[in-house]
Write a structure and sequence with these properties.
Elements (H helix, E strand, L loop, with lengths): L1 E6 L8 H13 L6 E6 L10 H7 L8 H18 L3 E5 L9 H10 L6 E4 L2 E4 L5 E7 L15 H11 L4 E7 L7 H24 L3
Parallel strand pairs: 1-2, 1-3, 3-6, 6-7
Antiparallel strand pairs: 4-5
Length: 209
């Protein structure tokens, strides 16, 4: 199994999502058949797309100019990394009700017609088949009540975007109350997440989903 480990937090040693994705990958690496590719989107944020980018992606490969090849190189590289991965382990802290902007530019670079999905008379079809994702989403507050659940724009957007490109097996671990409810509540949330991660790692060892 090949894992693509993605971090997005702007924080370093104070990041809950980074701490937990690292912990997850460490546990999964206990399986000798696991290899890991790492991508830090905060340090290596893809370029914002523009009209020239779209035009280049819509140009047949044999008609691309050198400048267009260079413009597409990052996007094509990211898509290839996704294609050659079985499991994505992604840390997504919630910033202002959604994920970091670096992850949005990542999605813009990899959600490309003909590459990760296709359009035809029957509709849209995702092309990234038989992939799984574990999303570890840390949040400073809590969004699990009827009064606050609508503020969580991150979870449905990730599942919609991934589903569109064919990734339907998405496990969302929500690590809430990491900032505004004190250290004890934060510790409880992290401990609970670690238990859930341990279960996922144990399932990998036993061949379960």
């Amino acid at each position: 199994m090949k894992i693509l480990h993605i971090d997005t937090s702007i924080r370093k040693d104070r990041s809950v999502s980074r701490e937990l994705t690292k912990h997850t990958v460490t546990l999964f690496r206990e399986n000798p058949n696991v290899t890991v590719d790492y991508l830090d989107l905060n340090e290596n944020t893809p370029a914002h797309i523009n009209q020239e980018f779209l035009d280049a992606h819509r140009t047949p490969a044999d008609g691309l100019r050198m400048a267009q090849h260079e413009l597409l190189s990052e996007s094509i590289s990211l898509i290839e990394r996704l294609r050659h991965t079985d499991l994505y382990i992604i840390g997504l802290p919630m910033y202002n009700f959604s994920f970091p902007s670096s992850f949005k530019t990542f999605l813009d670079n990899i959600m490309i017609s003909g590459k990760t999905f296709k359009n035809d008379e029957s509709g849209e079809t995702g092309l990234l088949k038989d992939k799984k994702a574990i999303i570890i989403s840390s949040r400073g507050a809590t969004y699990d009540s009827p009064d606050t659940s609508d503020y969580d724009c991150l979870s449905p957007l990730v599942k919609t975007a991934f589903g569109y490109i064919g990734i339907y097996d998405v496990t969302m671990l929500k690590v809430e109350a990491t900032v505004f409810f004190g250290e004890e509540r934060k510790k409880q949330s992290i401990d609970l997440a670690r238990k859930e991660i341990q279960t996922l790692a144990d399932n990998l060892k036993t061949g379960q989903k």
